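Two entries, shown back to back:
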Amino acid sequence: MGAWFFDVMMTADDDDGMARHAIHIQQSLARLGANTLAVDASAENVGVASRHAAADPGLLAALAFRHASAEVLVQEAKRFDIVCSMEVVEHVDNPAAFLRSCAELVKPGGHLFLSTIARTPLSYLLTIVAAEKVFRLVEPGTHTFSKFVNPEELVGFFAKPLAQGACPWISRTYSHGLPTRTEAEVRGIVYVPWRGDWVLAPRATTPWSTQANYLFWVRRPKDDV
């Protein structure tokens, strides 16, 4: 199996829900046999993840950590079979540049996975009003509503060439502007409070289930070199 690049945005509090899920995903990939590189622009977050991984010495051979950014890694020669960027794009100032950096790190034929938040009234209610102001699940000010990214914006981004002479990663869309599942897919993820966990919404519920948190997958064409 080739190398994996795993780019995670975690809060400084290692008890935060998203931080715990990010750490869980990193360790799960390593246990499945992937050579996993966990990257974060925050040295404190890298330290939190490293301490969690140190509790399981069996992970050390397959899981590495690095304090860096996707933009820094692009300057290096290494490319990856799978790039995952979880809960990051809605925090960056230039999402188009960030997405291009993530895409450039993917080998031809490889996969890019994103998780982010749609810019809708429902997401504002859930992430800013409920999570930040009412229940204080995350620090107030963590999210900026104007930076949230709608699924159709991601689909549209990858439906255009990412560089001069390159081919689009998404060649066509169908009903509700959704791409063919051989090229990309959008799936909602829903928090179930009585379980204290997130669940993947059924495909049949798209697009209404992508009105808040959602996952986005797209594959780089094999002939895009």
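entry 2 starts here
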Amino acid sequence: MAKGGGGNGTDGWGQYLGQYLTIPVVNRAVAGRSARSYTDEGRFDSLTNEVQSGDYVIIEFGHNDGLSGAVDNGRQDAFGDGYDTTATVTEADGTTQVIHTFTYYLQNAITALQAKGAIPIVSSQTPDNIWNGNIIAAGPRFVGYAQLVGQRTSAAYVDHYDYVAQAYNAYGQTTVTTWYPLDHTHTSPTGANVVAQAFIRGLLCGNSVLKSKVNAAGQTVPNDCL
């Protein structure tokens, strides 16, 4: 989603979204961040201060939110989907810290944005270039967590994972693999554009009022409603 992706010529899909909408897009995604680290760095606070009533805010996390092992990496969330669930993690210097769940961080951010009059949209994480036979492998737990956050906050939800998987399955593994020059996570500009198109398709097939802002080019993105 972030500008520059993982470096070395990769890019995030947020950079390609604006060509399909009638309104300007400001990409505040930052590479390598999780719901927790984006919160801890004050980025959600800055975003909340920046938005105006009526602004749309697309929120997508998951790739960097997994457990990190014995030593905390500053990004992992507490395991589970409970708002009040916590975990205690050990830092590299031996100190400990209490962390919260993916759903906790996103629900707090969405509630604050809604209080400003903004319109959050929860988007599930996109697939990695990992296949199960001839189809993209099933999504991780953060896909379900994102959907749950949308339900709990009454925010629109886009199943970006499944819409990207639909697009990737149509192109096939050989073609899709050419869009991952660095690793199985970060896309080339061509791949990022396909991922942006998949978001637009999911948006058009959902109930978000943002779909009224999809332009003519967006109306013709490939694939069908799931």
